[in-house]
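ingest -> validate -> predict -> emit
validate: passed (alphabet ok, no gaps, 563 aa)
predict: started
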Amino acid sequence: MNFRINRSVLRKYSFIAIVVLVPAIAIAQHKTAPAPHSAPAPHASAPAHSSAPSHSSAPAQHSTSPSHAGSTTHTGSTTHTGTTTHAGGTTTHTGTTTHTGTTTHPNGTTTSHAGTTTHTGTTTHAGGTTTHTGTTTHAGATTHGGATTHTAAAGHTAGSHTPPGRNVSLKGGGSAHIRPNGQIRSVNRNGMQINHNLHGGRTIVSTHNGARVVTTGRHGGYVQRSYVTRGGHSYYSRTYYYHGGYRTGIYRGYYYGGRPYYGYYPSYYYGPAYYGWAYNPWPAPVAYGWGWGGAPWYGYYGGYFAPYPVYPSAAFWLTDYLIAANLQAAYAVQAEAEAGGLAWGWPASDQLVASMGAIPAADANGVVLSPEVKKALSEEIKAQLADDQNQAASAKASGAQQGSAPANSNEAPPALNPARRTFVVSDDLSVVADGDECSLTAGDVITRLTDKPDDDNNVNVSVAASKKSDCAPGKMVAVSVDDLQEMHNHFREQLTSGMGELAKKQGKDGLPKAPDTTTTAGDVPEPPPDKTAAKTLEDQEKAADQTESEVKQEASSSGGGSQ
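emit:
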């Protein structure tokens, strides 16, 4: 009897020992196992830390006591080098990517960085270039390398940029988008595309007899026609018309993703030494007086822009020159609209500038164009100066006979160059942020986030700097590649103009003396102006007026349309 009782007790204690010891052994083994997110061995070709997208300069480390309650939590800084695969998508880090803050991987699917940043789909960081493919959600603030910050509102998902209002199908074909207040936002009919911004301005684009006609106001626009072919590339002439004056430019054709694009092409170059002088630091920083103190535009935007106190190189001088040129243009457009009672004759509303008086001064507490944003812009200028220097050297070596590269039927336009991220807005655009329309106006600065256009030919950008009444800094909006390319074209035109001004002023007012500033003609000569451009633009204005009159009638009678 006692023997049977002892055996029963023994079986009970054996069972308890098994229950206790097995999990203990498993836990001990888990603690000695390597961290589940240990990075593979660094590649010998990985770029230096300074060229890699970085969230912090803090040293990489893992918490020595990770918690495993259905998820894995890393506290402190986490460094991933090489390729890391997470469930729910693949994240490839080429070079070194450092994430600092708290990183939580519940079931391997979510990453949290100083706020919450979630990448779904494929995200590639290659030596400072960031590509977001698929669906990307940014919540909080994510910084990629020094001066470039991508910030978005919590829960905002790329691609949700549908403007408020309703779509109307038009009789005879075409469509229109009507804002909630009854205004026409856009019309697409009979090959004519009409867009209204939030400040009363209208842009009209159409093609007539092979010519691209773009009207940007009652008194301006351009007509673009085929010009010449060099080295397998097509070049186009543009004749700009504004208030009775003409100017011309050359644009190289690109064809990408089934769409044509047009990029600025210089008709002349300076000597390579002059570009090098503009690129490299000057012997000593230079204090320079612009003389803007009494200018109305400068007083108006005083809360947004302030020039550098000194200039260590021409790139910084050109940065202020370029920003100022855009702000002057924005002020002139707004002043003209005020003087003309809203040049388009559109009824005033709470979305439009209704005051007929003087333009009010900017709020002193408004958003300031930060040094970080200006530094990013100066880097874009330096990169373009380096490209121009190489082109100038090639032109000199070949006797100005460039353009020998073969044609590329699917070559991306310069605005989609992965090395080009920072853009200065050159026109008044209406975009959508978090479901509401807001404006981007000349002088605002945006950062391109995505490289590949979506089905609507848009790319995602973040607002890096903006004026008080425009889209707030940090908002993520969609901008068409056409608009982005025109920003880049305007940037290059203004940079060319700035180099010309610098050539005139070098050696004066404290600026150091430059090398030879003479120019050499490029391989495509400057085209003569198209003196029919004024009439062509006027005819397009009348056609657009008639189209919009019809659209208003149809929209009023339908009273519906798809949302």
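Residues 1-33 form one domain.
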